[in-house]
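Title: Request for sanity check on Aromatic acid/H+ symport family MFS transporter prediction

Description:
We are preparing a figure and want to confirm that the structure record we downloaded matches what your pipeline produces today. Could someone re-run it with the sequence below and paste the raw structure tokens into this thread? We only need the token string, no images.
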Amino acid sequence: MPITMSTTSPQHLAQGPTLDIPALIDASPIGRFQLGVFVLAGAAMIIDGFDVQAMGFVAPELVRDWGIARVALGSVFSASLVGMLLGSLALSVLADRIGRRPVLVASMLFAGLCMLGTAHARTLTQLLALRALSGAGVGAIMGNAMALVSEYCPARRRASTMMLVSCGFTAGAVCGGLIAGWLIPLAGWRAVFLSGGLVSLAISLLMAAMLPESVQFLVLRGARRERIARLVKGIVPHEPAARLAEVHYLVRGAKPAGAPVAELFRAGRARATLLLWGLNFANLLNLFFLSNWLPTIVSDLGQPRAVAIAIGTLLQVGGTLGTIGMGLLIDRAGYFRVLVPGFVAAALAILLIGQPGLPLPALFAVVLLGGICIVGGQPAINALTASVYPTRIRATGIGWGLGIGRAGSIVGPVAAGQLVALGGSAHAMFLASALIALASCAMTLVLARRRDGPGDAEPRDAASADGAREAAVER
């Protein structure tokens, strides 16, 4: 694929030929260099999923080991979620200032150390503090990993690639369950966190050695041309290094200026930002409500314990299928043509779950559909968020969306618990959840109205208005 470079822009005539990095990535095939980035990002997502679920796997053994009441662990679960919320908000902003790579590597390292510390906790207070700190480290992983994948992936495959990498989260949760089931009988609950911490440290060292910084971020930050050229060489390995060293590299959009969070509300992005925050909040509220309460409610409706456990597992299986399937569909049809009917289907599925007397095969079917649309829908929301914001604030945009969503993940299970305490019926709980899914659908529809022109299925890249391309890339 020869690349054609332009020298027609007056401001760059003295600097030689120019090349637009996003145009180059969009026109180039995905090669080994980019696959390496995606694999490392997926490995980080595995640790994220492992850490989020690890406490749930060890909780029964911990209660027996320490002789504490189950309710005492509620504060530990909450501390982890609050830590994730704060880490997602704060460290995503830092990533748009110093880079995705250092924040991602440091977060993995810190989370690994905290998991090792958790393995040596002796009191409930120590456990609470370590889980909060671990949550803060893990909270930065997903937003930065998704930003990095987005900035190395061509637009034609961006949604499906980001969502496929997101499957690492589910894989981490599944691996955590398998590891816990194997290690706890052999070595106790501490071995689960010990193994997770060691793997996290190993991945962080591997990332420190092999994970590149976002080349788009480096261009916007004015990094040395030689450093940028080395990364571009990975994208187009056939191009002579000497030629790449003479190029002036461009990325659409202004250079970073001011507070990244304030930038989320500038240049006509305020409405999209608020809608994406609402979408994250609503969907993660539903996701954590279903993940935490579905097996219990199904059991209370008269189903055997084995069925209740299978229902909880089926929800996550649906999430994996939805992540892969929706990603492929979004690449073809666009975000809104997939998400809007997806949230409608989710509302119908959730409403049916709460219907008394539903035959078991039908219950399995609607739970699977709910998992496909709700659990599988969250990676789609992350990918949608990445497409809305320009490079200079992309990590902040994804991180703050997830941070607001973490608040929903705290509210969902707590609100369900309050409804149970007040004597609310299962039907009422699922009705409320279905209405929230419809609210997600409504917000997605309003967000879709940002598009210009007939047949558009995706949000306009917020950077596209900042200037026309100055380099042509030909196949």
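Thanks, this matches our download. The CA atoms of residues 18 and 287 lie 46 Å apart.
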